[in-house]
Amino acid sequence: MSETPSVQKKRAAKAPKRVAATPDSAVSEQAPPVSLVRRARRINRALAEVYPYAHPELDYENPFQLLIATVLSAQTTDLRVNQTTPALFAKYPTPEDMAAADPSELEQILRPTGFFRAKARSVLGLSAALRDDFGGEVPGRLEDLVKLPGVGRKTANVVLGNAFGVPGITVDTHFGRLARRFQWTTSEDPEKVEQDVARLFPKSDWTMLSHHLVFHGRRMCHARKPACGVCPIAHLCPSVGVGEMDPDKAQKLLKYEKGGFPGQRLKPPPDYPGQPAPPLSAS
Fold it and tell me: Could you tell me the pTM of the whole model?
């Protein structure tokens, strides 16, 4: 016997309602909490006061030098790169010159940076690509830069932000670590970290934000033992206490100019308050 319309209506009312699944893309596009945005921007403003002289810590004079230096900085320090590039750029000042370099001679110059054979291949490949595809000029677009051998988003954003004035977030190990400690992200994936942090700040802040976090990560908020006891933004940090809280002990953990030591650049900007790093022959 078939049900009457009234019975069907009652049955439908009692049935559990189905809720449409929310696509992952929609979840990721939801605006972050206002409280998170406000605290994140307060942290960046405070870091800007601590490091008003924050800057790229690679020595360079043009976009090509910055591109090469950033590629060489993988798995080593900016200091070691800065100690290596003077001889490199003196011998191969242009993409055309570097693309024509003898691989064995190039490897010997790059040896101090580690992984020198792989880096030599990347340097030769990207220099040839610049020569052949871009008229010997470094392109100013992300989609072009990431096509070059050895160039990923991090390297591309360094070059865009500092050589071309195009806002970009540079997610290196320091940036990712601090972004997680500040609870701006929970991800270990650099691209996801970049996306999460980008939602908290206007584009105009991205490049300097990157410098602020990298400077703080290198000087105070270290991976193994942060100097929480002397950190000037400890009152804003949700992870305060993860490191050394005793001020005297924390003071001894500070590096570079904050600890009274040389910085990473052989040729720092005029407003840098620390000492220039020594050349390779003196280190």
Answer: 0.87
